[in-house]
Amino acid sequence: MSQEAIDRDLAVIGGGPVGLYAAYYAGLRSLSTVIIDSLPEPGGQVSAMYPDKPIYDIAGFPSIKGRDLVSGLVEQVTRFAPTYVLDQRAQVLQRTGNATIEITTDKGVLIRVRAVVISGGIGTFTPRPLPAGSEFLGRGLAFFVPALDAHAGQDVVVVGGGDSACDWALSLEPIARSVTLVHRRPAFRAHAHIVEQLHASTVSVIIDSEVSKLLGTDGVEQVEITGKDGSTMTLPAQAVIAALGFTANLGPIRDWGVEIVGNRHIPVDTTMATNIPGVYAAGDITEYRGKVRLISVGFGEAATAVNNAAVLINPEEQLFPGHSSDSLSIAV
Ligand SMILES: Cc1cc2nc3c(=O)[nH]c(=O)nc-3n(C[C@H](O)[C@H](O)[C@H](O)COP(=O)(O)OP(=O)(O)OC[C@H]3O[C@@H](n4cnc5c(N)ncnc54)[C@H](O)[C@@H]3O)c2cc1C
Predict the structure, then answer these.
(1) Does 149 score more than 70 pLDDT?
(2) CA-based radius of gyration for the chain
(3) 298 lines ligand 1 (CB under 6 A)
(4) How far is the CA of 209 from the centre of ligand 1 (A)?
(5) Is residue 57 within 6 Å of ligand 1 at its C-beta?
(6) Ligand 1 pocket: which of 12, 24, 41, 46 to mutate (most atoms within 8 A of CB)
(7) Residue with CA closest to ligand 1 atom 22
(8) pLDDT at residue number 142
(9) Which residues of 278-293 are buried (b: 16+ CB within 10 A; e: fewer)?
(10) How many whole angstroms separate alpha carbon 183 and alpha carbon 176?
(11) In what helix (H) or strand (E) does residue 246 lie, and over which residues does it extend?
(12) Could you tell me the pTM of the whole model?
C-alpha cells in the first residue's frame, strides 16, 4: 500500500541534541520540518548513552542531566510542531527536479523537502537486542525509559552492565515496586561511584546471569533468569529494560553521494554546506579544521546551517534572522 509523501521545507536527519535544536531554529525561520531518527526516542547519544549523567558544559546550565536537556530541547521545538519520523532510518537521499530532495526511510516513508540538515552524529543508532523474548518488544520489553513514571508500581528488570543499565536501575528504584538488575558478568562496566550507589540501594543485583526467557500472554509477566552455573529462577516483571548498548553505523549516508572523510565525517564549509546543493550538516558528523565534537559547538552549527538553508529555500530572506528577543511573532 503506497503511503502519502511528507512534504516539508526542511528535513533534519538525526534527532539528537543538535538535530532537535536545528528543527527549533528552522521553526524560528518559519520553515516546516520533519525530524527522522532510527531510534524510537529523540535525544541521540544523550538519551541512548547517558540520560542520567550531569552535563557541565551547556551554556546557561551550570549542570543539567542528559534527560533534562533532551526534554528541554523537545519542549522548545514543540512550539513549531515538527513531524517526527522515529524508529526509521533515512535510507535513500536524492535530489530531484525543482530543487527538491527526496528521502525514503527503511520503512518506505517518502519525504520531500527543499533542504536537509544531516545531524547524524556517529551514525544510525541501533539498540543491541535482548536475545530472549524479542517478540515482547513494545509489550513490556523496551530499550529506553522515556518516562520513569510509566513504571510506577511495576516490577522492573533491567538487563546490562554499563552506565545506562545502572542509571536506569537507580532512577527507577524510587518509582517502581521492585527493580532487579541482571548482568551476565561478575563486574559492572559503569563508573565506580554509580556501582557504589547501586550496592547501597534496594536494587536487587544478579550477576553472572542472563535473562533466558520472557513469559506472558499479552505483555511481559515474568522473567526467567539463568545463572552461569545452570540454575534458573523466575521473577515477576511487567517491564524489562534491555540496556545492552547500541551499535552506531554511518550506514546509508555513505550511499548518498555526500563526501565522507576519515570514514565517518562529512566535510562542510563555513555555511555548513556539504558537497550536495541543499544538503547541510551539523553536530558530531561534521568535519573542518579545528572541529570540536561537543553539544555546544553543534548547536552553533545547527543555527548556521538552518539560516543558510532558509536563504537557499527563499533567496529573499536575510541570512541574519534578527534577534529572537526582538520578535513579536514568537509567542512564549
Ligand atoms: C558518555 C558520553 C558523555 C558525553 N558527555 C558530553 C558532555 O558532557 N558535553 C558535551 O558537549 N558532549 C558530550 N558528549 C558528546 C555528545 O553527546 C555529542 O557531541 C552529541 O550527542 C552530538 O549530538 P548530535 O546531535 O550531533 O549527534 P547524536 O547525539 O549522535 O545523534 C545523532 C542521531 O542521528 C541518528 N541517525 C544517524 N544516521 C541516521 C539515519 N540515516 N537515519 C535516521 N537517523 C539517523 C542516530 O540514530 C542518532 O540518534 C558525550 C558523549 C558520550 C558518549
Answers:
(1) yes
(2) 22
(3) yes
(4) 31
(5) yes
(6) 46
(7) 284
(8) 93
(9) bbbbbbbbbbeeeeee
(10) 19
(11) strand 246-249
(12) 0.86
